[in-house]
Amino acid sequence: MDCTIIVDSREYETAEEVIKWIKRLSCNIIPRKLDIGDYVLPNNMGIERKKAMDFISSIVDGRLFEQSKELLHAFNRAYVIVEGDLWRALNRRNVHKHSVLGALGTLIDMGIRVLYTPDEEGTAYVMKSLVERIGNKSIKSIPIKRGETIRDTQIQFLSSLPGIGPKRAEALLRAFGTPLDALNNLGQWTRKVDNINENIVGLVRKVLTTKYGDEINNVVISIDEAIREVNEKENDDKRNRKDADNVNNKHNIMDFLGDR
């Protein structure tokens, strides 16, 4: 039986291991620029693939639910594949497990089919299995976004910044009017927009001000690593404040006992 899978051209360049395993499983790969989803399978099935860390990040910035809505509108069957150890990744982020569990429940309620795979090989095998289950059917069309407005483009532009996402992007546009004014007033984000803290601002500033191609000790710092650095700093700050509060409380108790 023929197995054909269409992959987004950007995914084709970055998910080399997945593509390699799909080919090893005797499936044909067709790279195309996809507006919605990462993979298109026969019988109008669409798949959004997320590595565990990106899945958590997309919950925080709101991308996950926007992308899921688009999948549901575009395909008869919409899947989100979570690749890797989600709970291990959660330990590296300052996100409570209840937020992740709540997000998973929301996806199910929306009608999204959520699949878990241990690695790239597992992801490839799941897609191969889905194709085999529906039989010898062809891919008749690729959904595209139509009628995109300037407003949509503005939201997408700001949403692409780390830690922002669609909801915060809209809040920034309401506060500053245009993307250019929002970027020119980066220092005011924490004062004018809820749920944006100094850590997010610092990460956005790093993206905006780092010269293209710059390296630190010949190692390129990835966005995930930068986010992890920000979260670790935030956790250190919280621990330091807690320790300081404990010391102050101890002093207050000793003062009280001394007065007696």
UniProtKB/TrEMBL annotation:
It comes from the Archaea. Keywords: DNA damage, DNA repair, DNA-binding, Hydrolase. GO terms for molecular function: damaged DNA binding; single-stranded DNA binding; single-stranded DNA endodeoxyribonuclease activity. Transmembrane segments: none annotated. Residues 232-251 are annotated as: Disordered. InterPro entries: ERCC4_domain (IPR006166), Restrct_endonuc-II-like (IPR011335). Residues 4-86 form the ERCC4 domain. SUPFAM superfamilies: Restriction endonuclease-like (SSF52980). GO terms for biological process: double-strand break repair via homologous recombination; nucleotide-excision repair involved in interstrand cross-link repair. Residues 232-245 have a biased composition (Basic and acidic residues). This is ERCC4 domain protein. It comes from Vulcanisaeta moutnovskia (strain 768-28).
